[in-house]
Amino acid sequence: MSSSALLFFILFFITSVVFFIKIAALTAIIKMNFLELGTLYIYLLPRTMVYTLPITFFIALCITLFNLSKENETIVLFTLGYNPKKIAQLFLTLASGLSLVLLLDIFVLIPISKQLNNNFIEYKKAEAKFNIKANEFGQKFADWLVYIEHSDDTKLYSGVTLYQAPMENEDEKLIVATTAAIDNEKGILRLNLDKGKIFEFSKDTIQQINFDEMHLNSNPKTPVGAIQSIEEYWSGVFVDQRRAYDLAFFLLIALFPMASTLIALSIGIVTYRYNKSGIYVAMFVTISTYLLLTTLVSTWQPQFAPIIVFVLTFFIAYIIYQKRIRAIF
Fold this sequence. Notes:
Layout: H1 3-26, H2 34-70, H3 73-79, H4 84-128, E1 139-141, E2 144-151, E3 156-164, E4 172-185, E5 188-201, E6 206-218, H5 230-235, H6 241-268, H7 279-300, H8 305-326
Antiparallel strand pairs: 1-2, 2-3, 3-4, 4-5, 5-6
Helix pairs in contact: 1-2, 2-4, 2-6, 4-6, 6-7, 6-8, 7-8
Pfam families: LptF_LptG
GO biological process, one term: lipopolysaccharide transport
Keywords: Cell membrane, Membrane, Transmembrane, Transmembrane helix
């Protein structure tokens, strides 16, 4: 396995661990099996790729060129007529291709995966809200107090009693049913009652209604929403500050390979006899500075951040490239 591939897997693993920790934190709120954890992880893959691929490309390019310089291979390339301009054009082309792939990921895959991820979590939260146990008091379904005599693993209940206290424009009610089952339809909980009676208590009378089937719905506070189209999702950047920040931040991460290619050449192509150290510090400073600028400018001016940070970084990279590479080699 090449060092570039190994580096990618290391960064991908670290990013995956971070996202897995976030997913694991959800298990304190909702119950999920291994398949559902895997589903959430797949929904997070597009964002994982955005974070790992640009940084991997930059570090791999720096290390590859540095190793070539160490073995004097860059001198051989220059001797054969491959001047720094041709090398820069080659890697800028590769960086542009990678950035295009990442832009496709940002504009198409991330909106869909993020909405699916949010809807899945809300679905599981809604499902967790109705976890009634047998022979326990004080349990609720919507506005109803619930007591059941028996339950099984298939969410089938028997000996069901529901009580609703008097409310404005509604009298006190009591429902008894032989059996009941719970359904979760797109985050909306439904309690299906079979063979029971409804008692409604007013000041003067008691009314009784017998039923064979009855359905009670409980709408969650955060219902599972419909999936927006890509155009609808990103049109929110004009009214939603958080979404505007996300778009600016992701765009700048996607453009990082193009913005940093000339810096990578300046770091990697060296005269090894005089520049044996400092490559890792230079890589760290470059990545940290770019991420800091991306975060700050995306927070202050998300609409203009991609242009400002990308142009500024590319301009600085070009100046460094001219002084360290073109002027020497």
